[in-house]
Amino acid sequence: MVLIIPVAVSLTLAAGAFAQAGLNGSPFPDVTWPDAVSPNPAAVAGAQSNQKSPPKYPSPWADGSGGWSAAYDKAVALVKKLTLEEKVNLTTGTGWQMDRCVGNTGEVPRLGIRSLCFQDAPTAVRYTDFVSVFPQGVNVAASFDKKLAYLRGQTMGEEFQAKGASCQLGPVAGPLGRSPEGGRNWEGFSPDPYLTGHMFAESIKGIQSTGMMASAKHFIANEQEHFRQLGEALDYDFNITQPGSSNFDDQTLHELYLWPFADGVRAGVANVMCSYNLVNNSQACQNSYLLNHVLKGELGFQGFVISDWQADNSGVSAILAGLDMSMPGDTLFNTGRSFFGPNLTIAVLNGTVPQWRLDDMAVRILAGWYYVDGDTKSIPVNFESFTKDTYGPLHYHVGSQWGAGLINEHVDSRGEHGALIRQWGAESTVLLKNDGILPLTGKERLTAVFGQDAAPNPNGPNGCSNKGCDIGTLAEAWGSGQGDFPYLVSPEAALQHEIVSHYGAFESITNNSALTQIQTLSRRTNAVSGVCIAFANADSGEGFINIEGNYGDRKNLTFWQAAEPMLQNVTTNCNRTVLVIHSVGPIEIQKYKDNVNVSAIVWAGLPGEQSGNSLADVLYGRVNPGAKLPFTLGASREEYGADVLYTPNQPVPQFNFQEGVFVDYRAFDHRNITPVYEFGFGLSYTEFEYADLQIEKCDAAPYEPASSVSDAAPIYGTIDNRTTTHLFPSNFTRVPLYIYPWLNSTNLSSAYGGSGYGDSTFIPDGALDGSPIATHPAGGAPGGNPQLWDVLYRVTATISNVGSLAGAEVPQLYVSHGGPFDPKRVLRGFEKLFIKPGQSTSVTFELSRRDLSNWDTVSQNWVLSDYTKTVFVGSSSRALPLTAVL
Ligand code: BGC
User: Fold this and answer.
1) Ligand 1: which of 213, 223, 308 to mutate, judged by most atoms within 8 Å of the beta carbon?
2) Which residues of 823-841 are buried (b: 16+ CB within 10 A; e: fewer)?
3) Strand 213-219 relative to strand 117-119: parallel, antiparallel, unpaired?
4) Strands 391-393 vs 404-406: parallel, antiparallel or unpaired
5) Substitution site in 223, 309, 466, 467 for ligand 1 pocket (most atoms within 8 Å of beta carbon)
6) Is the dihedral of CA 615, 618, 622, 628 positive or negative?
7) What does DSSP say about strands 577-583 and 598-603: parallel, antiparallel, or unpaired?
8) In this structure, which residue's CA is closest to atom 11 in ligand 1?
9) Whose CA is nearest to atom 9 of ligand 1?
10) pLDDT (tens digit per residue) in 198-243
11) Residues with catalytic roles
């Protein structure tokens, strides 16, 4: 049958037009859920507009516990020698585009402390050349391979190290992926907190093994791009007064959004980046409940809290609430003023920030640095973020008159990482449907490739700033989470090479609107029993870029690049069609699953620079697919039970997470919705069988809530309180707009420069008190009470490869906690196994106390409920042949 559908009308809208449309009857209505997906009344009650976050003071001081003692002692020894300005200098960025990295601290040359270089991204070194672009977080999650996550972290860390960075700004566990449209979900891993927790922790360990600090971001509930930042939202003509507030209850916090961050802290992450959004109407970077009570108290975090760029909106208030470092240092980009810097010097001199708090900030920052051996492993920065010119200004924003020189040494940091990236791209490709057409032989009479998503971007692989366009094949999404490709192997090039190397027949049409030609070629391919391989994608990214009305977040779950008419023509005319998807997350594909002409569906995600080669390895059977979906593919967005808020519902937009912990598969399970493809699903070219479930109960000591009391807050060195000693040094040349720690007047009120100097009524009760504090009952070590990781049960199963090819399988263990408000089941174990044909392997899952507990908001601790707990083992969240009651 012949089918030609005209190209869809372009969806491009000017920013103003969108806002207009949004206000007068939104084209993207804010979804309200008639049947609240959480059965838990506490979750619903805790997710109301104008919810408040309780104050928690003082800010706990680090003590070097949990493997941090060597780093802590070294940091203390150094902080004892620092002057007030030197301490302040460690805490404050020098200003946007004032030094070479996206964030740079002041230095202490007298004692050999370099300026620390903070550089994006979670997937590549951003803003420089000769670096690799790795498979993105969502692909790492799809691999379900912890070793891959570690090695990728280590390999990325090596590249950051070779460029002279001190901290890689990643990995990401916030967004977790509450709603499938969330613009930055792909930077993180999966909406399942257990899967994300493992990938997050392994990435951190890998990155930090190289001497690079990792940054666990964005803390927390940074689940959508719309309204994340005031300035950005106003630029888009949204009429708001503050960033949006993510509102949810304490149980949802612990069981869902905090879970992976606890894993990250336990893995020893050097810093945690607080996010732009408000949480329960208190800014995440000034939220004493989250930073003081939860992160530094309960989770015993020993490193430092760094603000997201311009997410810090105050000095004293944020510092007392737990913020340790302000980035990029200026209040807003290039104002030349800082909430920290000289204002922190003033705050310590006038007592609104006690010395112990400043000392703790400095100790935490240096301890993070020493914890990863940054002092011995780092080299000087050899690139400049804001230009690729070899010579140029030392302080980019102010130009060459303030110093110029060699700024880009063009160091090639890649080694042979390309080979690993190719392998990881293949290992993270999910096979969703296969009627036997795959693997291809390469000897097909005619191989016809369709779709813009197969082709290179004609403007070059880095042709759009920050990847802010969707032209050509999608191997990396947009925003600060990406880096520049050293090359990009397109699917078209790789597949053509595959066929042409033995002089086969290959044709491609990568113009999605050439419907006549598409129809002709697909019919001809069908007639000779060739294979049609059709490509389609869906993109998203960070809120500072808007592509066709997708303000970071996607506005729907359909294909981009007007791929739909192309796909309809191919699938109508060619009964041997392979559909390849490059998407940031869920996409609506029910009709392709149901279409008999679609012989196979492959989700390749965002595979990075070796995209085409990784795909060819899977399609031609050199790699047997063993990846699994790290999210649910539903038939429509409504099925997910949580959505982005697209139009402000209040001047401070309120994101009410009324679904509680019921996101992704938990929502589908709870509402008995059969997904198109479920979480954890993925096929192989071989087959596996599951048998022999065995459960061993382990002896674990009874759980003891932590009960120790800290020492009083330590103070290091004496601060000279005379204001004259804190003035700018004489004969000092100040670079304009650069943030320094010194004062420009001995009169603190004039040095402060703002109005309202001297008012200290805003200081919360207890915030200045450095007396000993009691340990949080669920705390006691980084990540939480160590007994939470006591193993309560060992579950064993046998997996057999009953097919004829070697392959990888991911047995998954799910637990039903059994309570009326619990999800039907939650992931609590997975392992990636490589099994030869005819062989069996046994897999053992260890279930910890934490894995089986619920968060109890009353005792503020994890508790094992009395409900019957059941375990399920199988190959996806819905294929669970083995089950037993614990
Ligand atoms: C992003 C962060 C990023 C920072 C520095 C912010 O806008 O949210 O993820 O690390 O910019 O570029």
Assistant:
1) 308
2) bbbbbbbbbbbebeeeeeb
3) unpaired
4) antiparallel
5) 309
6) positive
7) parallel
8) 309
9) 480
10) 999 999 999 999 999 999 999 999 999 999 999 999 999 999 999 9
11) 308
CA of 808 to the centre of ligand 1 (A): 36
Cα separation of 80 and 850, whole Å?
39
Ligand 1 centre to CA of 539 (Å) is: 19
* Ligand 1 center to 750 CA (angstroms): 33
- In one-letter notation, the amino acid at residue 18 is F
CA angle 694, 696, 699 (to 5 degrees): 175
Nearest-angstrom CA–CA distance, 637 and 175? 18
* Amino acid at position 418, single letter: G
- 109: burial class by Cβ within 10 Å (0-12, 13-18, 19+)? exposed
Rounded to 5 degrees, what angle do the CA atoms 47, 51, 52 make? 135
Distance of CA 430 from the midpoint of ligand 1 (Å): 29
> Which atom number of ligand 1 is nearest to the Cα of residue 169?
10
Residue holding tokens 């935490």? Answer: 364
Buried b (16+ CB within 10 A) or exposed e, 290-301: bbbbbbbbbbbb
The whole-model pTM stands at 0.96
- In angstroms and rounded to an integer, the radius of gyration of the C-alpha atoms of the chain is 27
Q: What are the two backbone dihedrals, phi and then psi, of residue 19, each rounded to the nearest 5 degrees?
A: -60, -40
* Residue at token pair 């104050």: 55
Kindly list the distances between the CA atom of residue 254 and the CA atoms of 40, 51, 786, 870, in Å, as whole numbers in the listed order: 15, 17, 16, 21
State yes or no: pLDDT of 27 exceeds 80.
no
Compute CA distances 156 → 63, 204, 373, whole Å: 30, 11, 17
Q: How far apart are CA 534 and CA 581, in angstroms?
A: 9
Amino acid at 335: T
Q: Ligand 1 pocket: which residues have CB below 6 Å? A: 102, 120, 169, 217, 308-309, 480
| Model confidence pLDDT, tens digit, residues 819-848 | 999 999 999 999 999 999 999 999 999 999
Name, in order, each residue with C-beta under 8 angstroms of 253's C-beta and a sequence gap of 6 or more: 220, 294, 855
Determine the pLDDT at residue 11.
Answer: 27
* Rounded Cα gap, residues 364 and 347, in angstroms: 19
| Residue whose CA is at the smallest distance from ligand 1 atom 6 | 309
How many Cβ atoms from other residues are within 10 Å of residue 261's Cβ?
A: 28
Q: Which residues pair with 430 in a beta bridge?
A: 603
